[in-house]
């Protein structure tokens, strides 16, 4: 990979998509509205809580890349963000998470019940926005993503605390729960931008590989990233019993004692900071954080390669830089 | 209304739609499948638990009524049933229900988490089946229904135990949470059958009014129906704090003592059979069960009237009889 660019590529992506994203954000706000007060209150609490809106930015960026826009990218971008937020609402209930984006999770404020139902509402609104484009092919891409994402979450749930989980199982979970929505976001963006079959395929692969890289980095960051630096949220996945790659590899390669240290803390919501530190030390000893990040790099390279079939342009270069930045988060 | 027909109209509807429903049922089973074992296990547990499949039957019956079938009714019928089952899974989590269709609710067997996620999966699969028809207008009808249903559930949640709930609030809740899916089921059926605008509108109104009648009857049955006959599930809505019409009317018209008897039991999961019996006695004294059923009858008549713009046919007569039967359940 090239040297990291001087200006943060996410900032440059924000700038390049600003005009479209202003429309997307207006649409998001208006479609989160309802005469049932709890709906916009809860939805806006989450939506305005400072997420990066990376997924909808990718949708409008992909449309810009091809530039023969049919104008439907705005709707698809808002729909993608709603799908993502619906998933977050349901995931926080399923994971019993207390915090999201540095604030109490919506379920801590309005309860699990409202979080489930407002998630359903956002999903319904997402489909309505898609339908308004009249683009049935793009609707197919996003509805398939929706089913696969839920299936991936069930698979992750079934594998929670399951010590026999393999790296292949893990690869399937992150593809389904994260990468498929990145893939769909980029693919429908390309479709709205008038991409041909090769362009559409390139952007789909770009999104899928970027999403895989993104989740691998997240899963390494949960244990402090490359350097295993301990922070206040370090070990959340451990306490929830999530079978992520750093743990799967360490369980395979660790000694009996190391395995016991891991399995005692795994899935124990009350595991202490010291227990987490001991587990992180094992992950470092077996270099499983570094190897997780190596896999992230490999996916990142694939994402960049996917773009190479397309004509060179500023947007293509920017999308390539975004990939690089997304893995640098871990250092 | 005419005399009740000799043969149960639901049985006759089953017979009239048997060939189409065999296809619908096969599609439902195949689309509830997944390599993630927990998905088909949980989904089939609910799907095969002996629900009447009234909604998908209405979809194929509506298509048959117009008879210029585009063949998409099968997909829409299966999608409607998946939407309904997704809602049941989420509702049982929200209502903390232990039982569904005489068996332990899915959440009691697989847990709340799996019920939420498999509900999401069924919704995603529903949209995929709709997309496969290529009928974007019908997709619009069903996606709007999906958003309104969730909104209605949030409204019902917000109104739980709220003593200021009005009959108008109640009418809005039952329209959104129940009638809109009946409406959509009938409307997309008519659309797949090649109905013109008037036919489509007639079936939409038929479904909406039937759905309203259906829910009013359900809410009266929860307190024992017309006769206030106490059974083992009598008073579930009371214990959950659901503001249904029999309770709303009794709170408006009851004495201070009667109001106190109701409000003490309302929302108390541990309310005794005696408390429930005392509340039912109040509902009978103010005839609020009978008046709830009067409203059901009025909606049922509207449903039948909606059909009258259409040419007479055996199917039209059968759909009219189905309405009649749906309100007779309460006696």
From TrEMBL, chains A, B:
GO molecular function (one): prenyltransferase activity
InterPro entries, sorted: Isoprenoid_synthase_dom_sf, Polyprenyl_synt, Polyprenyl_synt_CS
GO BP, sorted A to Z: isoprenoid biosynthetic process
Cofactor(s) listed in the protein's UniProt record: Mg(2+)
Keyword terms: Magnesium, Metal-binding, Transferase
A UniProt-annotated Pfam family: polyprenyl_synt
Classification via PROSITE patterns: POLYPRENYL_SYNTHASE_1
Alphabetical list of CDD domains matching this protein: Trans_IPPS_HT
Gene3D superfamilies hit by this protein: Farnesyl Diphosphate Synthase (1.10.600.10)
Top-rank lineage group of the source organism: Bacteria
PANTHER family tied to this protein: ALL TRANS-POLYPRENYL-DIPHOSPHATE SYNTHASE PDSS1 (PTHR12001:SF69), GERANYLGERANYL PYROPHOSPHATE SYNTHASE (PTHR12001)
Family per record: Belongs to the FPP/GGPP synthase family.
Record-given protein name: Polyprenyl synthetase family protein
Annotated source species: Devosia ginsengisoli
